[in-house]
Amino acid sequence: DTLTSLTNDIIHELNIPLSTIKANTAMLKKTMEDEKSLKRIQRIDDASLRLKKLYDELVYSIRKEMHIIEKERFDLKSLLEERIEIFEEQKRNPFELILKPYEIEVDKIGFEQMLDNIVSNAMKYSPKEAPIYVTFENGILTIEDRGVGMSETELLRVHERYYQADDQRDGEGIGLSLVKAYCEDEGIDIQITSQKGVGTTVTLNISKVHVGA
């Protein structure tokens, strides 16, 4: 219908300037040697990456409203290794993985976005040298960091839209709200524990979406 066509057109048009910004910042980086200018370009690049992440989440949410997104079967271990490899390319935090093969059936795109949000937060609120631990055992997926952590008050507000525990850090502000919504839709139990100055642990019980042999 008209609304669907209009939405698809807008989605397409939004992606064009994003791609242009990304391509041009990459070219400018190669030609610049001045440190101050390089830092400015990097800030533009970082901002465009955050914008792209928001764009992807917007597109996913719109398409989810317009159509029923089919669930897919896939191996959790393979997906985790693939996503973590992308984060490792940022050459920031080291990762320690303890994983086993485990087939699940969920909305895969939503699962990837949910996972990316949790891992991004773990990295954002951790020192660059601090490892991120990703472990899976007995239907429980755990993402643990040794970052700044949160107080009890901050922890109570963590799922609110636009809330950020640390106002000094850049962030999308809606990540954990989307994580919670996705988990509720899929029947995944999520628990977040944290301690100021110690770190944060996100625990996902995904046994309900397991595809048993």
Question: Brief description of this entry?
Answer:
This protein is α+β, with helices and mostly antiparallel strands. It contains six helices and seven strands. Helix 1 packs antiparallel against helix 2, helix 3 packs across helix 4 and helix 4 packs antiparallel against helix 6.
Description:
The chain is an alpha+beta fold. The chain contains six helices and seven strands; from the N terminus they run H-H-E-H-E-E-H-E-E-H-H-E-E. The strands form two sheets. It has a five-stranded mixed beta sheet with strand order 2-4-5-7-6, covered by helices on one side. A hairpin with a 2-residue loop joins strand 4 and strand 5. The longest helix is centred in the N-terminal third of the chain and has 32 residues.
Strand content: 15-25%
What profile does the largest beta sheet have?
5 strands, mixed
Low-confidence stretches: 167-174
**Multimerization status:** single chain
Which structural class fits the helix and strand makeup?
alpha+beta
Dominant shape: globular
Compute the gyration radius: what is it?
19 Å
Strand order of the largest sheet: 2-4-5-7-6
Roughly how many Å apart are the termini?
42 Å
N-to-C order of helices and strands: HHEHEEHEEHHEE
Write down the overall mean pLDDT. Answer: 84
- DSSP strand tally: 7
Helical content stands at 40-55%
